[in-house]
Sequence to fold (661 residues):
Amino acid sequence: MENQIKQRERITELVELLNKADYAYEQENREIMSNFEYDALYDELKRLEEETGYVMAQSPTIRTGYEVLSELPKERHVAPMLSLDKTKDVEALKTFLGNKEGLLSWKMDGLTNVLTYQNGELVKAVTRGNGEIGEIITNNAKVYKNIPVKIPYKGELVLRGESIITYSEFERINSEIEDVSAKYKNPRNLCSGSVRQLNNKITAERNVLFYVFALISTGEDKQFATRSEQMEWVRSLGFTCVEQRLVTAETMDETMAYFSEQVAKNDFPSDGLVLSFDDLEYSRSLGRTAKFPRDSIAFKWKDETAKTHLLEIEWSASRTGLINPVAIFEPVELEGTTVSRASIHNVSIMENLALGIGDEIEVYKANMIIPQIAVNHTKSGTAVPPCQCPVCGEATRVSVEGDVKVLYCTNPDCLAKKVKAFTLFVSRDAMNMEGLSEATLEKWINEGFLKEPADLFHLDIHKEAIVSMEGFGEKSYENLTASIEKAKTTTVERLLYSIGIPNIGVATAKLITKAFDADMEKIRHASVEELTAINGIGEVMAQAYVEYFARKENQEQLDHILAEIHLEKTESTATAVFEGKTFVITGSVTKFKNRNELKAYIEERGGKVAGSVSKNTDYLINNDNMSSSSKNKTAKELGVPIITEEEFLALNGEASGGETL
Fold:
């Protein structure tokens, strides 16, 4: 057993090392280890996987690229997945346990999944759904960061667990989203959306983790007397399990103290604990009620609350014009930290709490993490949404969206909107104008240099004023104008993303561009029906898109931009010559600037680029086809054609010099 654990730990270490090397080599055009070292580690990993029968989802020996589905099929669970009865009283836990021994574990705050393995391979993953019917997400589970897709146990194995996204990953993803209103509210919402993607490339990028909390069934050869034995065996197969501790009524207080001290240190979200009887035969004898199993109970933390007084409500504006309320109160100590502000989220919540300046309120940290207002003791109800935008001073309006009241700024020229809109327009995935910070854009908007995006192409009018500004000299101005000049040649999808249509991100802009064959006239006049026919675009997104282009000023601003730029039609929209083909790239390239450029070339023409060779690979591109690298070895073993760049270009009807034949 000890040797197996060491082998799995080494497998995990090797997968991480090799994936880092692959990423550095393929995405960043640099090497962090020699080919000799890479091949040695790869061979070691392959040998260990063969010896143990344990293969992780992220292993470079089995990665086959990503898949896109048209829908998530639904499936009825064999038995209903019941909720747990709940308590906030530690004494109730002691009473529940009586003289029996139990297992106390984290109640993780994510999305419950059921995994099924047959003959040592992951064959199915299903969400909890409504407890009766869930969605099949096998495609996505196969790219979770920490689950094995192959295990040594060959009998049928069914596990239940929680897919989660850590707080640190949640913060990383939110930090990359510029629009405040588009940021994810909490890790659970982010996880739910990530697990239910149709494109599992997105799931993989979110670094979803899976923690097993229950063994549902095994083959007849495996029998267990206790849950703790079950979980120990599940761990021995290489799964990550929820932390569990054996407990009795006598040891309950000290065990609860341990968990309460840990919760604030955890990087994963949890919303309480679960107590289950350890003895499986006794558990089965208890049966269940119509709503709850009788062998387990959930414990919800008694939130530590503090009374304070509301000092003000701050209104925070975003690029879309949405203005969100934030409560500012006298600082209080909660869960070991000082807090003085809490998001109220929207006008409806503010009204339901009947907030007013000076009110005595009680605040707490939801799940011991996120500051919230629990109750308003005074309920003066004097706080009202501002009639004027806190940024531009123009009129605001309250809008009802799905029974929720939200506040918007009506001024299309609001500085908050403009700064965020210009920041998006010049960003890397949009028009890619280097050297323009948000602070610089705000300064130029205030100076009157920028009123709409097209003004960025006429900064020469203000050259004298710009070069005299602090932090901007002649050289900076020249670099900036060179970057803007370069940005004049762009693609339709970049332009579509850059103009800031609500809910239209990079991926969606590409979908729309491809669906309309990069025809800008069709794109700007698309109907709701045409948009919802595109896989991945729903009614709400389509309606917002159509409303954006229905506004005359938006159409005029787009016309002004189009007058300044040249749109290149990406080849993928014209002819998908590599549709359905999967390529792997290795070694140095000579016909392209780097491997990233070659990868983009393939994807623009409908192909996919994977990180490792598998039976699903159509071509391995390597200018040294006699190389003894691991990728070449695997390609030869699987009969995958190894082609040079020249041969690759010939597939697309291009000569080695890049000219069309």
User: Anything to note?
Assistant: The domain at 305-408 is CATH 2.40.50.140 (OB fold (Dihydrolipoamide Acetyltransferase, E2P)). The longest helix spans residues 2-27.
